[in-house]
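Researcher: We are triaging several targets before committing to wet-lab work. For this one, the compound of interest is zinc ion. I'm pasting the protein sequence and the ligand SMILES. What I need is the predicted three-dimensional arrangement of the protein with the ligand bound, expressed as C-alpha cells, so it can go straight into our comparison scripts without reformatting.
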Amino acid sequence: MKDKATIKKAGYKITGPRQLVLDFLKSGEHYTAKEIYEGLEKTLGLTTVYRTLEILTELGIVETIALTDGSLRYEYVLGKKHHHHLVCTGCGDICELDGCAIKDLEEKVAKQTAYVISGHALELYGLCPRCQKK
Amino acid sequence: MKDKATIKKAGYKITGPRQLVLDFLKSGEHYTAKEIYEGLEKTLGLTTVYRTLEILTELGIVETIALTDGSLRYEYVLGKKHHHHLVCTGCGDICELDGCAIKDLEEKVAKQTAYVISGHALELYGLCPRCQKK
DNA sequence: ACTGTAAGTGAAAAATATTTTCATTTAGCA
DNA sequence: TGCTAAATGAAAATATTTTTCACTTACAGT
Ligand SMILES: [Zn+2]
Ligand SMILES: [Zn+2]
Ligand SMILES: [Zn+2]
Ligand SMILES: [Zn+2]
C-alpha cells in the first residue's frame, strides 16, 4: 500500500485505472505499455496506460528498462531490492539478477566528471538454454 | 578500412549510401537514425539508413545504445576499446567512460543461469555541471 | 452526504518512429 | 561489357507515443 500513499502524497488521485495498472504490474513481470493495455482487456485507454506509467516512474514506483531492440518495459519495484536483468535475445525472456556493484562506479564517475549521478541501467544479453538448441 | 573488408566478407556490397553512413558515424558521436539521415542532407533515403544500421550492427561495426527515454543511438566502434556511457538527462549529452568490469559478472551469470552471454549494456544517468545550474 | 472543481479519462487525431512493398538502379563478377 | 542478385528510395503500411478536448470523477470542503 506504500504505492497509493506515495501517489496521494505527490498530489495525484487514486483512480480506478491507476489501480488496475498497479495491480497488473505487481504480478512481477516486465511489461510493455501495450502488454499492460491488452492484459487489462481494454478496460482503460492506452493513453491512460502511458500517462500512468509516466507518473509511476516519476514517483519511483515503477522503473523503465530500455532494451537494445528499442522496446521499453516497465517493472513495479517498490519493495524489491535493486537489481538488473538478463535478456534472452531469442525468446525475449527476462531473468532478474541479484546484487549490483555499480554504486562504486557511480561515485568514481561523479568525482571524475562533476556529473550528479541519478541512476544507472545494466542489462546482460544472451541466449537461454532453450534458445541455444535451435 | 577494416569496416569495408568486413562488409564484403559478409557478402554485402560496398555502396555509396553505406559509405556515407560509415563516414558520418566515424565522426565519433552517438547518433539517432534521424540525425544520420538529416546530417547527410537527405542524399539517401531514411529507409536505407535503417537498413544500413541493421547490417553494421549485425557485423559488429556499429553498436546500439538504448536509452531509458526510448531512443536508440548508434556508435561506430571499430578500433575503439569497449566502453560505456554517461548520459545527461537534462541536455542529452553523452560522455564515454573508460574501462568495464562487467566481464566477470558475465561469466558468473553464465555459470549460474546456463545462458550463453553475448554482451551487455551499461549506462549511467545524471546531470552535467551545466544542467545542474538550471 | 452533497457539491464544486481541479484532476483524470478516453476517443480521436496528430506526431513520431520503424518496416514493408515494389519498381528501378547499381555493384561486382563472369 | 553485360548479367544478375543485391541494394535503393518513394510510398504505403504498421507501430508507438503524444496531444487535444469534451466528458467524467476523486476528493476536499462544507
Ligand atoms: Zn526486474
Ligand atoms: Zn545497479
Ligand atoms: Zn561510445
Ligand atoms: Zn562493458
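Researcher: Any quick observations?
Model: Chain A touches chain B through 37 residues (CB under 8 Å).
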